[in-house]
Amino acid sequence: MKIFGLVLALIVAFGPAGAAVLTGHVVGVADGDTITVLDASKVQHKIRVAGIDAPEKKQPFGQVSKENLSRLVFNKEVDIEWTKHDRYKRIVGKVLVASPNCSSACSRTFDAGLSQVNAGLAWWYRKYSKEQPGDDRPKYEQAEQDAQSRRQGLWGDKAPIAPWDWRKGDHG
Question: What is the structure's pLDDT at 4?
């Protein structure tokens, strides 16, 4: 564990608002809000995308959400702006990648989590909104409202069940 801490300390730089930044290559996508990143030292990090909660794999839209996140980040370089680990020891962070519309060398400023919400493939995780940077909260809230009004993705369901309710066994 000491080695992990040392390696993490060596690769992490401090960015905006005191958030640490981890840069690496996405080598796995577990679901619509969890990825695996390989850093420059070849250390793998589990990342929980901050600000969102995507449908569980067996939940309606769970597989579509995973596929969309894969399209956005798999096999790409990302910057993870983070401030904490969750109870599963995953880094919880904002995942930034080059825009999917970019054709050459581009900066990593495209917010994959916000894109998931905008596509109607994740909920804005209000329960943890106070952990988001203040300027992100209204963007995520608006993205969710826009997806709902367009009946985009999971919002096309008559009664979408939030993942936090699904995990409790409340399947409608």
Answer: 45
Domains in the chain: boundaries? 7-156
Q: What is the pTM of this model?
A: 0.88
CATH architecture label of 7-156: Beta Barrel (2.40)
Would you say residue 159 has pLDDT above 70? Answer: yes
How is 71-100 classified by DSSP, letter by letter? Answer: HHHTTSEEEEEEEEE-TTSPEEEEEEE--T
- Structure tokens that stand for 25 in this block: 């290559």
Residue 74 tokens read as: 């798999």
Q: Which residues are catalytic?
A: 48, 56, 90
* Contact between residue 80 and residue 90 where contact means Cβ atoms under 8 Å apart: no
8-39 tens-digit pLDDT: 443 444 445 578 999 999 999 999 999 999 99
Distance in angstroms (rounded) separating the CA atoms of residues 15 and 135: 15
